[in-house]
Amino acid sequence: MSEEHVIIIGNGISGITLARHIRKLSDKKITVISNETEHFFSRTALMYIYMGHMKFEHTKPYEDWFWEKNKISLKKGYVQSIDTTSKSLVFQNNEILEYDKLIMATGSKPNKFGWPGENLNGVQGLYHLQDLTTLEKYAANNQVCERAVVVGGGLIGIELVEMLISRNIPVTFLVREKSFWGSVLPSLESEMLNRHIKDHHVDLRLGVNLKEIKGDQNGAVRSIVIKETNEEIACNLVGLTAGVSPNIEFVTSSDIATNRGILVNRFLETNVPDVYAIGDCAEQQEPIGKRKAIEAVWYTGRMMGETLAHTICGNRTAYNPGHWFNSAKFLDIEYQTYGWVNPAPLEKNRHFHWMHQDQSKCITIEYNQSTGEVNGINTFGIRLRHEVFHQWLTEKQDIDFVLKNLGKANFDPEFYARYEGDILEKYNLDLASV
Amino acid sequence: MENLQNTSMSLARPDTQKLSAKLKWALAFGSSGLFILLLAMFNTPLANHGVLLAASLSLISVGVVLYANELYLKKSEGIKNDGVWFNALSSRGARGWVVGVVLTMFYVVLYFYPHLLGLGAHGAKNTGLIALFDPLSHLLSGGDASQWFVYGTLYTLAILLFGFKFMLKYRGNRYQQLRTLSVMFFQFGFAFLIPELMAGLNSTSNLPYYDLKNMWPLNYYNFEQYRVDGFISAGNMGMAFLIFGIVSIFVISPFLTYKYGKRWYCSWVCGCGGLAETAGDPFRHLSSKTLASWKIERWLIHLVLVFVVLMTTAVVSTYLETDSSKYWLTKDVFLVLVGLLLTTGFTLTMVFKRKELGQDARYGAVGFFILIMSLLGIHYSSGGQLFFIDAETLRSLYGLLIGAIFSGVVGVGMYPILGSRVWCRFGCPMAAVLGFQQRMFSKFRITTNGGQCISCGNCSTYCEMGIDVRAYAQKGENIVRSSCVGCGVCAAVCPRGVLKLENGSLEGRVNSPEVMLGNNMGKSTNLD
After folding, report:
1. Which residue of A has its CA nearest to B503?
2. Record: contact A44-B525, CB cut-off 8 A
3. Which among A42, A54, A63 has CB closest to B291?
4. Is A64 on the interface with B (CB under 8 A)?
5. A71 and chain B in contact, CB less than 8 A
6. In the listed set A257, A278, A312, which residue is the last one of a domain according to the structure?
7. Based on the domain organization, do A14 and A161 belong to the same domain?
């Protein structure tokens, strides 16, 4: 019997992790389809190419010979439609490919909200490799681009800001919330980041929305208008970074059930047998714990790929992410989080804050008022050990224990100043004043 | 993306960065200082060497310090790699090639044609560049300068000045600052000042020029006859130096490597490492990260190690007596000791660490071991010439191929083409010894932080030793590699706090998790 043909649409972190793990576990025939690049690259590193820290080749985690050696065939092409009855894919060039098992790992696309002018030249998101090409065209330097406007105060937004200022391009940053990433971070942290962003000479506008984008006679961006004030800001580039949503256009015409994303159960199975979805494009029918139904996070894509490989190879395994964690970098300040810290403490919870006097390091711990059990921790400018916090959250440790043992979780480089003593002192002061 | 690659040599290059007034002054000072050296090099008749040398070195220093201040102090602390791959100097562009070729040529002249720099032959007075350095040499050791004194002075100055620049570049990172201070200290004190002063104080004794931190086998000539004779004839001090030389390679370095990894030497003490980390820093990302380079590296560096062991054994055995009544350490005793030492090391590794060696490493180890032992055996049974080649020929071949061409001409000359640690990675036998110890029995590792890696590749790109750090980090595996010099730059450039250099317990040092941390696959599914 010939081996089953597994087709994976999408060569991002989810699809590639899946392919690698299927290869570890079996001899199945694997084809990975992508329309973006021939080889897997790390999307998270796009910013570093524009900033000149890396070249595109450095963003590829595997050398080009890797795929052939591991018998993972790569196919560049654009899938137009899926016929689940005949178990086949139709490509844009009418080519047809049959599958035994099909996995959607098609990722996301940047959100657009129907703003007037959003399709002008010089208006773009930051997601695909192709976005770098247009960015080089419209924002190569501060002569080509005298000002850029970035719309959307999330993680991609701040990355685009960092990129543009690395080339000395003046940036106006429009953030809908009253404070940067205020829908996620407690206000003290978010305000610290506001100051940090302004320290980098970014024209940060809080609590404002984009009304429209105006073009010139050549169809290129000329300016934007702010809804609240009607202020017009001249610019040559508009970065739209107001989140992403699942990239599933070609799926909606098939009989695979979708909502905002492709609907899957805990086994990452869709409603159609032998069809699965993983990564950014998958939407859990029932959200897992406090996680969102659609998680556009690098490591969840990797975990879904890791998990689904077992199911594909005959050992049906549920997707079971552990404690929430994440990390990011806001210009020069690193951020890590383990467990859940809400912007304002949930009922029965309390926040403990500590901030260093230099305003570039702080931590917040959310914990239960009566039991002391730690819900989660945010740190800025201090690295923590994932393994230790994973264990403490599993053991449901209380805040006294966590603060007394915080040193064990420190992951900063050797010889860095340590703040556990200061932090504990602040906690005791807080307790005394309650 | 092409429009930012500044490879054009046009004077009217449209995208030239605007220079601030301070940067212009800095460049003016620095180039005037260099110009004095150039004038001397072209043998221009110059008076007042002392004043001119002082002026030249001061101008260069002021230039570099001003430039670094202006470049980094205006910016916030943080990673400073913007535009590294757009700059023609640091991305193998036209300027990179020019600097690479000029440096290489300088080394060729230095090693093979020192008279072109003005070295006076057969007791004649120095001229040119070397004569310019005579006053400084008189001040320190009392003697005239040699090409090595000129080189040593410039080398030390480069480590000090570019070390200063490096400390500003990484001013938010105390690990980087401390280890840079450390290489600056060891270069200035141990490699430059102390040996020169000792030479001045001991003009009557035979104590050889000795940089105490430069141990065998990096210092491949340390146990040659003229040096050993010198040590012995210089009394207690000389004997202490000789014993220190032996103890440092067999006792001190294994102990420190066990505790801290080979970084204690390679990126905190060593002069070659010191130059690579300071003047070579702008080129660190040019090291090749391919699997093919790794394979070449492992064979090449161990071949050099075998070469230096054979060469040293041959050289030492030629001057030892055969008559045991004169001195206990005869040629035969020495060869037996070498054989015993190698057999012990080989046996211990094969018994305890077999599983940690790759198949090719096992073949290599067995092959090299059989080669050395049979050469010793043949000599012992037949009494012919050791290793079939005259020891002196072996020594001069090593000096030429490895000491001059590999470590100098290619090792430093090719900084802008091959990256800053070519010698350390592919050639240095000291790095091979320390790397073996680091891989087999050290507490050092780079820990990766659970599931936080986003595979961006900054760590791999900026690894000067060409280690694909990301390949480990994205699997949640610790990095335990013989080549890692522990510079810590991977951890510094990681945007997500994934990497940490640390000395921990030997247990679980080399880990290979089945499932990445954060994924509870297969565990109960009722987490909230």
Report:
1. A414
2. no
3. A63
4. no
5. no
6. A312
7. no
Is there a single domain that holds both residue A235 and residue A258?
A: no
Rg (CA), chain B: 25
Q: Does A358 touch chain B (CB under 8 A)?
A: no
Residue A270 lies in a domain: yes
Q: How wide is the angle at C-alpha A394 spanned by C-alphas A389 and A397, nearest 5°? A: 70
Domain range list for chain B: 18-74+113-200, 291-427, 442-503
User: What would the two tokens of residue A124 be?
Assistant: 């773009």
Chain B residues whose CB is inside 8 A of the A407 CB are: none
Length of chain A (residues): 434
Q: What Rg value do the Cα atoms of chain A yield, rounded? A: 23
- Same domain assignment for residues A164 and A221: yes
Q: Which residue of B has its CA nearest to A411?
A: B500
The one-character DSSP state at A57 is G
The CATH number covering residue A414 comes to: 3.30.390.30
Count the domains in chain A: 3
Residue A319 lies in a domain: no
**CA-to-CA distance for A380 and B210, rounded, in angstroms?**
48
Q: Which of A61, A136, A299 sits opposite B451 (nearest CB)?
A: A299
Could you give the 3-state DSSP secondary structure of residue A243?
coil
pLDDT tens for chain A, 434 residues: list them. Answer: 578 999 999 999 999 999 999 999 999 999 999 999 999 999 999 999 999 999 999 999 999 999 999 999 999 999 999 999 999 999 999 999 999 999 999 999 999 999 999 999 999 999 999 999 999 999 999 999 999 999 998 999 999 999 999 999 999 999 999 999 999 999 999 999 999 999 999 999 999 999 999 999 999 999 999 999 999 999 999 999 999 999 999 999 999 999 999 999 999 999 999 999 999 999 999 999 999 999 999 999 999 999 999 999 999 999 999 999 999 999 999 999 999 999 999 999 999 999 999 999 999 999 999 999 999 999 999 999 999 999 999 999 999 999 999 999 999 999 999 999 999 999 999 999 87
Has residue A320 been placed in a domain? no
291-310 in A: which are within 8 Å (CB) of B?
A: 298-299, 302-303, 306-307, 310
Q: How far apart are CA A312 and CA A28, in angstroms?
A: 10
Start-to-end C-alpha separation, chain B: 46
Domain that holds residue A167: 123-242
Would the CB atoms of B515 and A299 count as touching at under 8 Å? no
Q: Check which CATH number belongs to the domain holding A211 and give it.
A: 3.50.50.60
pTM (two decimals): 0.94
ipTM of this complex prediction, to 2 decimal places: 0.95
B296 backbone dihedrals φ, ψ, rounded to 5°: -60, -45
Residues A338 and A405 grouped into a single domain:
yes
H/E run at residue A364: strand A362-368
Does A273 map to a domain?
yes
Secondary structure of A127-185 as H, E, C letters: CCHHHHHHHHHHCCCCCCCCCEEEECCCHHHHHHHHHHHHCCCCEEEEECCCCCCCCCC
- Taking CA–CA distances from B6, the nearest residue in chain A reads A52
- Among A213, A242, A271, which residue terminates a domain? A242
- Residue B143 burial (10 A CB sphere; 0-12, 13-18, 19+): middle
Collect all residues with Cβ–Cβ distance below 8 Å to B237 and sequence separation of at least 6.
Answer: B207
Residue A49 vs residues A61, A324, B283: alpha-carbon distances, Å: 15, 29, 17
Domain B442-503 has what CATH class?
alpha beta
Q: Do residues A104 and A252 both lie within one domain?
A: yes
Tokens representing A357 are: 């006097």
The verdict on A273 and A336 lying in the same domain is: no
**Cα–Cα dist B24/B10, whole Å:** 20
* Distance, CA of B233 to CA of B136 (rounded, Å): 29
Interchain contact, B458 vs A53, CB within 8 Å: yes
**Rounded to the nearest 5 degrees, what angle is found at the Cα of A109, between the Cα atoms of A104 and A110?**
160
